[in-house]
Design a protein that fits this description.
Layout lengths: L6 E2 L4 E2 L4 E2 L4 E2 L4 E2 L4 E2 L4 E2 L3 E3 L4 E2 L4 E4 L12 E4 L4 E2 L4 E3 L7 E4 L4 E2 L4 E2 L4 E2 L4 E2 L4 E2 L4 E2 L4 E2 L4 E2 L4 E2 L4 E2 L4 E2 L7 E4 L4 E5 L1 H6 L4 H16 L4 H11 L4 H11 L19
Helix pairs in contact: 3-4
């Protein structure tokens, strides 16, 4: 299952049923889980921990040295969960001493030419489309989707189930369950179609929409909106996730839509 023209460092730990194609390079201090496929010319660098049944396509570079001038060669790692697909020429840097690791969850799809910088934390079931560029320390919650050719500023947080349109410049945090679009990036409604596909009920989606009416459509500032939400709306996992995300958003959250762009569903 390992082609003779592949380079495998003798200290690498390769589980059973791993396929490594010709000209792939697996360096020392690498662990690859059972059933994973490594394409030709992929490079897996030191500190990589790759889960089961992953697919890493030609030219992808995993756990490369961080592109951070503060990095002094400290020992750091890259963790990739099970069933994740990394397409051609995607690059993923390992961590720095800020967090010591870069993390990508399970069942993710990282498309061609995307870049995931040092210390990023990507949840499960995320999709990062072609040419997306993530700065260092970006957080992407479970089921998050970032459209093609978008650029995400370092330290930005994107909440679970959020969807960002292609070509976006993401400078502020994007709250969970939302769609974000336009320039400058702004709230474009609740990701109701995605939520229905994932089993959210109509009642849950209506509740989420009501929370965001307080945040974006009733004229409150963020602090006032959070106070009113907690006074007026019953506690629930969805409400509390939104409130806690906004309350902890150190960079601030994306802006409200202009009057001409308000989604009909909201």
């Amino acid at each position: 299952m390992i082609q003779p023209l592949a380079y495998i460092h003798p200290e690498a730990k390769i589980a059973p049923n791993v396929v490594i194609e010709p000209f792939a390079m697996i360096h020392k201090d690498v662990e690859i889980g059972e059933g994973t496929w490594i394409g030709s010319h992929a490079i897996i660098n030191e500190g990589a921990r790759i889960g089961k049944n992953c697919k890493i396509y030609s030219g992808a570079v995993i756990s490369s040295t961080p592109q951070d001038l503060k990095f002094k060669g400290e020992y750091t790692q890259t963790f990739i969960g099970d069933e994740t697909i990394i397409r051609e020429y995607a690059t993923i840097s390992r961590g720095t001493d800020e967090y010591l690791k870069t993390e990508i969850g399970s069942h993710c799809l990282i498309m061609a030419y995307a870049h995931v910088a040092h210390d990023c934390r990507i949840g499960n079931y995320c999709i990062i489309v072609n040419n997306v560029q993530l700065g260092g320390h970006v957080h992407l919650g479970d089921w998050g989707i970032i459209g093609g050719s978008s650029s995400v500023h370092q330290w930005v947080k994107i909440g679970a189930h959020a969807m960002i349109s292609g070509g976006s410049l993401v400078r502020k945090d994007v709250p969970p369950f939302t769609k974000a679009a336009r320039e400058p990036l702004s709230y474009a409604g609740v990701n109701s179609i995605g939520l229905r596909r994932r089993g959210f009920t109509n009642e849950q989606i209506t509740e989420i929409q009501e929370v965001y009416r307080y945040v974006y459509l009733k004229g409150f500032n963020n602090s006032e909106a959070l106070v009113q939400i907690e006074l007026d709306l019953p506690a629930s996992p969805e409400r509390d996730l939104i409130v806690n995300f906004i309350r902890s958003a150190e960079r601030g959250i994306i802006k409200a839509p202009s009057a001409s762009h308000v989604d009909s569903e909201d």
